[in-house]
Write a structure and sequence with these properties.
- This protein has no helices and 20 strands.
- It is mostly beta strands and 236 residues long.
- It is globular, with a radius of gyration of 17 Å.
- 35% of the residues are buried.
């Protein structure tokens, strides 16, 4: 797995790795007041990008399509504008207005494409883990980042878990950024076209451990035949 280290405003490290299932050991930041931040480049039509916070480049190395943070990095709490730009260009794909990043809160920056189109948009998600508890349940959320399909269904080992999800619907319905519970265990994940019931992507068997939150997303394009399911266990 390829790791790229970001020096974010000369303060913290935001670690980025290639797409796929990621597992990394926890780290402890030496900065007393921090905000936790991760990134998912889930816009398959948009190519490599760079990210700016308050017009400061924080990704000197390009972030390719499908790349995501295997764990949260840290930045200093404050108010930031965010811009995603095309690599080696001053062209802005999309930007977020100034917003606050609070101490000890968790956020994900998500880049995605329009449903059925190629325009790119970015989204700031506040990751709320308050409902994640110990016990026999694992917790998950699902992002549909496959813009070529009008609706998809998500299955855990043949059991329907999410129905008629539309591309980037979590940008409009923020409830879809919350975590749902499922019995802990090993599952094979399948995403199907809800219209035709054909399989879009399928995972290998994956362990969902009790008391842990997981973010699942499907991304890729029909033309490139590179549709895949990613599963990320939250860690920092």
């Amino acid at each position: 797995m390829r790791n790229l280290c970001w020096s974010t405003l000369c303060l913290a490290i935001l670690a980025i790795a290639g797409s796929g299932c990621s597992k990394a050991s926890s780290t402890t930041s030496s900065v007393s007041a921090v905000t936790y931040l991760s990134v998912i480049h889930g816009a398959p039509y948009s190519g490599a990008v760079t990210i700016y916070l308050n017009d400061t480049l924080v990704t000197p190395t390009a972030i390719n399509t499908g790349v995501f943070s295997p764990k949260y990095g840290t930045i200093r709490p404050g108010v930031y504008t965010t811009k995603f730009k095309k690599i080696a260009s001053d062209s802005v794909l999309d930007q977020l207005p100034a917003s606050k990043y609070d101490t000890l809160n968790f956020y994900t920056l998500l880049l995605y494409n329009d449903p059925g189109g190629k325009a790119a948009h970015c989204l700031k998600i506040m990751d709320d883990y308050s409902g994640v508890t110990t016990g026999s349940y694992a917790f998950y959320r699902f992002f549909d980042l496959a813009p070529d399909f009008a609706k998809v269904n998500l299955y855990f080992s043949g059991g329907l878990m999410q129905q008629n999800r539309t591309p980037a619907d979590n940008a409009l319905n923020t409830n879809l950024n919350s975590f749902s519970q499922t019995q802990a265990g090993s599952y094979t994940l399948t995403v199907k076209d809800a219209t035709t019931d054909s399989v879009i992507a399928k995972s290998n068997p994956l362990n969902f451990n009790a008391g842990y939150p997981y973010t699942i997303w499907v991304t890729g394009t029909k033309a490139q035949n590179n549709l895949s399911i990613n599963v990320l266990q939250a860690q920092y």
